[in-house]
Specification:
Elements: H1 2-27, H2 69-93, H3 97-127, H4 141-162, E1 166-172, H5 177-193, E2 196-201, E3 214-215, H6 219-222, E4 230-235, E5 241-246, H7 251-263
Parallel strand pairs: 1-2, 2-3
Antiparallel strand pairs: 1-4, 4-5
Length: about 270
Amino acid sequence: MRVRNKVLGGLVAALGAMLLLVGQDAGAGAAMDYPSAWACNQAKFNWYCDLEAEEAPQEPKTAPKPRTEQQQALDELERLAKDLKEKRALAIVEPTPVHVHAYIAAQEAVMEKGSVFSDVWRRVVWQNPDINYQLKNPVNNAAVQVRDSERRKLEAQTLADLGKEWGLFFFFRSDCPYCHSMSQIMKLMSDLYGITVFPISLDGGGLPEFPQPQKDNGMATLLNVEKVPMVVLGNVKDRRMVPIGSGVLSAQEIIERIYVLTRTKPGDLY
């Protein structure tokens, strides 16, 4: 009996010591490197609380790049346009003297900038021949006459050179009044410049200037000739075909088109 009482007394003493240690640990929570298990969600593994994830280091902010001179100019141009548009809208919707005056003043300021730009533009063109468009296409009457004279010489030379291997195919119908008028011009081209004209009749009939034309053998369909009169420049050796135009054309128009289509590239004369 005494032995049993001693064992029970030892167990009670040991239990009291354990409770005392637990109480001390609870009071020293500030020294723990993790939150108290009693304050955590007990469904978590081992009752431990998840520590807050460390925040990712933020990249150092870089200073914005300075805007270029062109970007600043574009911003200013957009600001001026927006301001003028707003003042105009207000002056129209509420045309009071104050609003109209503000719009006129803003418009005058923009026009002044435009005038200065135009003046500087012409000064730069005058002083830089490489960007002077008038050297290529003059507007001065004397210079225009010289240009036209030189071009006519080139056109005549072109026609003379082409006459050796090229001819003009003239598509027409005998019942077409415009074809009758065009036939006179084609006859003139042949007589004055010596270029061969090949008359081709789509209906088999002739014209006073070309009483015995060739009948169409499918060439009109091949060249997609839908309207007459139609003139096509053709090479009699290699059979190259260059459409010149349809309708009634003057002799000068035909010569100019032949020159442009055979001796120049797109943009040369502009």
